[in-house]
Specification:
Blueprint lengths: L1 E2 L20 H21 L13 H12 L14 E3 L2 E3 L22 H14 L8 H18 L6 H16 L10 H12 L4 H10 L2 H16 L9 E3 L5 E9 L3 E6 L2 E6 H4 L9 E5 L16 E2 L6
Parallel strand pairs: 1-3, 4-7
Antiparallel strand pairs: 2-3, 5-6, 5-8, 5-9, 6-7
InterPro entries: Fido, Fido-like_dom_sf
EC number: 2.7.7.108
GO biological process, one term: regulation of cell division
């Protein structure tokens, strides 16, 4: 007998797990530590070879999930398309699911089509030589589409984000265009993922253009470090670097010789200080500028010269 998806959860909605924890916060804390260790094993080469096979197919994706979450879930590595084993019972995922993040509830690929959808994505990836031999910008555009398609398939009941990020990190490494997801806020990822499910890939494309550019990653990292010092939770913000060639206007919140943090059209924008002020003075108040291409930043030892302009309740 195969159980319905309600058997997947404890009565309070926490997914059933090997640890027997029905407290969401406790499970999250322990899961974070256990999965961190397993992901280190993948990256240092002590995990099974299947987790770094370089095949970039469904088996590769499933191997990453299985190794990462094996200590938490009996069904680790099993997609929504297949029955899961939980407490000795076969369990089927619900036909349709969506992310409960307070945004518009757009469903993911139906459960019975997950494997078919992923195989089509990975076949196209293979036909594109796994995105090798491309310029960084071309790679970023195609990687954004691949990531969006995997995310839209939402292969696993839990643990999709960490699994697909590791998959994409390996793909990018092999293609010669390293990615850095550490500077992507949770709010931004939620919004661009939803937009992609609704057919708009522009936000995801912009994100991949940034996280594949080491200089824009450095600008975001610097700005987020400043926000951490001010005890501002940037994970809850849509925070992005200014796009070269685009005009911006807004109120400066923080500035340093390297970067300016400002609110513009509802987003938190990180700009190069040299774009905002060309006379050597710390930018302040309302500013207007056109963003230029990113280059090596000015030196700013341990935040020296950083100025706070306004209340950072951004």
């Amino acid at each position: 007998m195969t159980r319905g998806s309600e058997f997947f959860y404890y009565d309070n909605g926490v997914p059933k797990n090997r640890l027997g924890l029905d407290d969401a916060e406790a499970l999250s804390l322990i899961e974070r530590d256990l999965t961190f260790t397993r992901m280190l094993e993948i990256r240092n080469g002590t995990a099974p070879d299947t987790t770094r096979s370089g095949r970039f197919d469904l088996d590769h994706l499933r191997a990453i999930h299985q190794h990462t979450f094996q200590d938490i879930y009996e069904w680790a590595g099993t997609t929504r398309n297949q029955p899961m084993q939980i407490e000795g019972q076969q369990v089927r995922a619900a036909p349709l699911i969506h992310k409960d993040d307070g945004l518009t509830p757009v469903p993911f690929v139906p459960s019975n089509q997950v494997d078919r959808s992923l195989k089509a994505t990975f076949l196209q990836l293979q036909q594109q030589d796994h995105l090798q031999g491309l310029s960084r910008s071309e790679f970023a555009d195609r990687a954004a589409r691949t990531f969006s398609e995997i995310n839209n398939a939402h292969p696993f009941m839990e643990g999709n984000g960490r699994t697909q990020r590791e998959f994409m990190l390996q793909l990018a490494e092999q293609a010669g265009h390293p990615l850095n997801f550490d500077v992507v806020s949770a709010e931004r990822m939620s919004i661009v993922s939803l937009e992609a499910r609704m057919g708009d890939l522009s936000g995801m494309g912009r994100l991949f253009q940034e996280i594949s550019d080491s200089q824009r990653v450095a600008a975001l990292d610097k700005a987020q470090g400043f926000l951490d010092q001010e005890q501002v939770n940037w994970q809850e913000m849509y925070i992005a670097t200014a796009t070269p060639g685009r005009e911006y206007g807004g109120q400066v919140a923080l500035s340093s010789p390297e970067v300016v943090v400002m609110r513009s059209d509802g987003d938190v924008i990180v700009a190069q200080t040299r774009d905002v002020d060309s006379e050597g003075r710390p930018p302040s108040g309302t500013v207007h500028f056109t963003a230029t291409e990113y280059g090596p930043p000015a030196q700013d030892a341990e935040g020296q010269g950083r100025t706070r302009q306004i209340d950072l309740d951004l």
